[in-house]
Design goal:
It is a single chain. This protein is mainly α. It is 64% helix and 0% strand. It contains five helices and no strands. α1 packs antiparallel against α2 and α2 crosses α4. It is elongated and about 45 Å long.
C-alpha cells in the first residue's frame, strides 16, 4: 500500500526521542551520542572547506569517496543543509584568513 504524502517516515532520531523519555538513562546516553555526532560532522565540515570540497578531499587522499558520501548525507540529515551551504559565511572567513580564494571552495 502506498504511503500518503502526509505520512512522515520515522527515522532513528524520532525513535530515540520517543524512548529517551521512557527508559531511565537513555536521555543522557542519547545526548552523548548526539554530541559525538555533531562534533564529528563539524570536523568533516571544516575539512570539506579547508580542502576545497569534494575534489580537494579526494585529490589529497584524505578520505575514500564512499566515506565522503556517507558524511555528506549524514550532514544533510543532521543539519538540514548541504555541507557547502551550511555556515558559508564562516567558511568564507576561514578561506580569507588563510589566503585561499573563494573560487577553490
Amino acid at each position: 500500500m502506498a504511503k500518503k504524502k502526509s505520512e512522515k517516515n520515522v527515522g532513528p532520531w524520532d525513535v530515540l526521542a520517543l524512548i529517551s523519555g521512557m527508559i531511565p538513562g537513555v536521555s543522557a546516553l542519547s545526548l552523548g551520542v548526539a554530541r559525538s555526532t555533531v562534533q564529528r560532522l563539524l570536523g568533516f565540515w571544516l575539512m570539506w572547506h579547508i580542502y576545497g570540497g569534494r575534489s580537494g578531499l579526494l585529490g589529497a587522499g584524505v578520505m575514500a569517496e564512499s566515506t565522503m558520501y556517507r558524511q555528506v548525507n549524514e550532514f544533510r540529515r543532521v543539519f538540514g543543509q548541504d555541507v557547502d551551504v551550511w555556515g558559508a559565511d564562516v567558511a568564507a572567513r576561514l578561506r580569507s584568513s588563510e589566503g585561499v580564494s573563494d573560487e577553490q571552495g
